[in-house]
Write a structure and sequence with these properties.
With 128 residues, the chain is mainly α. It is built from 6 helices and no strands. The longest helix is centred in the first third of the chain and has 27 residues, at 2-28.
């Protein structure tokens, strides 16, 4: 039961943070044009989430005393609620379905490339 509460509480916080990022990006995105159709919110949370998980991986390796509870709360809960890779799949599918294959391809390249680069950067920053 404790593990469920840690994951659920962290997931709540991560999901709320994701929602706030989506709202903030939506409010500054132009009302028309291809940028409006591009899933910027998903891109932002996935890249930031990957950066954070890379940094936490490095900290966890350097400080092996992390408890299972801390890992459940931070990694599974908060980051699991914040990062939305399932939304990535849905966004890409929707772009293709809606006749925007170039935006779908850009989405795949930016999500995967940006995420991998961010994991590397987070890890490097914390191991430097």
């Amino acid at each position: 039961m404790r593990a469920l509460l840690l994951v659920g509480g962290g997931g709540f916080l991560g999901s709320v943070a994701r929602y706030l990022v989506f709202r903030a990006l939506h409010s500054v995105t132009p009302a028309a044009g291809p940028l409006r159709a591009f899933p910027l919110g998903t891109l932002a949370v996935n890249v930031v989430g990957c950066l954070i998980i890379g940094a936490l991986l490095a900290v966890g390796e350097r400080e092996p005393g992390w408890s299972d509870s801390a890992r459940l709360f931070l990694l599974t809960g908060i980051l699991g609620g914040f990062t939305t890779f399932s939304a990535f799949g849905l966004d890409t599918f929707t772009l293709v379905r809606d006749g925007r294959p170039a935006l779908a391809a850009a989405n795949v390249l930016l999500q995967v490339g940006g995420g991998l680069a961010a994991v590397w950067a987070g890890y490097r920053v914390m191991t430097a």
